[in-house]
Design a protein that fits this description.
The chain has 196 residues and is mainly β. It contains 1 helix and 8 strands; from the N terminus they run H-E-E-E-E-E-E-E-E.
């Protein structure tokens, strides 16, 4: 086990893995984000106000089709927990829902590959399903655009700090209910650039 860990650390820190942003190379990594928000839900039968905490984990894999330009696949697991109050004081409750999304992303790096820091912009679209408490089921669509710096530890491994705008449309099949969310999101990611 220890030898495997040392091998992974060596591969991540060695200068022999090159080509951060060069055509024909792979991008493997992911990001995590945290979001705390208040939400209002309106349906045919009731109105609801809630306060929620959301955690997103998004692994991805991409390919550089041109220098500094990558396209790829992105999955996201989202956990949302919170408490809500139904309008008029008719009830309180809690929720624990999960979202599973799958989609595509595109990203562009603005500076040349030889830099220790770079700036990037990324757009992604994902579709998925919702599962949660009280047999909650539904479908959702998510679009985001983010930008920010990436700082490289070596020519292959970088940490990203991205600020983005996210729109999320949810439709619940277990209830007659739709939800639209829009807002800003901060995410931190780790990306590894590999030779094909």
């Amino acid at each position: 086990m220890k030898k495997s860990l040392y091998l992974i650390l060596f591969l991540l820190t060695t200068n022999s893995i090159r080509g951060q942003l060069t055509k024909g190379h792979w991008l493997v990594g992911g990001s995590a984000s945290f979001n705390s928000y208040k939400n209002e839900i309106f349906s045919n039968s009731y109105n609801e106000n809630g306060k929620y905490t959301q955690i997103d984990l998004s692994p991805n894999v991409g390919y550089f089709f041109a220098d500094r330009f990558a396209l790829g696949l992105k999955t996201t697991f989202t956990s949302i927990k919170g408490e809500y109050t139904v309008a008029g004081g008719n009830g309180r409750g809690g929720s624990d829902n999960q979202r599973y999304l799958f989609g595509a992303f595109g990203r562009y790096y603005f500076l040349e590959e030889a830099k220790q820091t770079n700036l990037l912009v990324e757009a992604s679209y994902q579709a998925g399903i919702i599962r949660g408490t009280n047999n909650t089921k539904g479908n959702l669509n998510n679009f985001s655009i983010s930008a920010g710096p990436v700082i490289y530890f070596n020519p292959s491994v970088g940490i990203e700090f991205l600020l983005g705008y996210v729109t999320n449309s949810e439709k619940y099949t277990s209830q007659v209910l739709s939800e639209n969310k829009k807002g800003f999101q901060l995410s931190i990611g780790l990306q590894i650039h590999l030779i094909k």
